[in-house]
Amino acid sequence: MLAALLYLRDFMVIVACLLVGKAVSAILPFTFPGSIIGMLLLFVLLSLQLIKLQWVERGAGLLLRHMGVLFVPVAVGLAAWLDTLSQYFGLIMCSALLGVVLILMTVGRLYQRMNR
């Protein structure tokens, strides 16, 4: 019984950050994913120790263990776009590869500057 309440508390904290992130996203004058804002909010709250790690650790661990199952609806949704994805597959792969290279170069440069 106590374990169920701890999981409930963990999920409530995570969902509260998600809902605040979605609310902030709705207010912004440009489009930005509310889930990302909520994740950043959770990170800031954990970093400032306004939320203790123990308050989200158990629930986040459960979500991470079952992450593969959580992506099944996304994969099924992508099946409806297979013709579009196959048409632009080369462009998508080039964009992804270029993005990875740019991120690695940026992180490498920042790391070199920070270690001088």
From TrEMBL:
Keywords (A to Z) from UniProt: Cell membrane, Hydrolase, Membrane, Transmembrane, Transmembrane helix
Main location: membrane
Cellular location(s): Cell membrane
Keyword Transmembrane helix listed: yes
Pfam family, one: LrgA
One MF term in the entry's GO annotations: hydrolase activity
Signal peptide: none
InterPro entries xref list: LrgA/CidA
Keyword Calcium: no
Transmembrane annotation, as ranges: 35-51, 63-82, 88-111
Topology of this chain in the membrane: Multi-pass membrane protein
Coiled coil region boundaries: none
Record-level GO cellular component terms: plasma membrane
Name of this protein: Murein hydrolase regulator LrgA
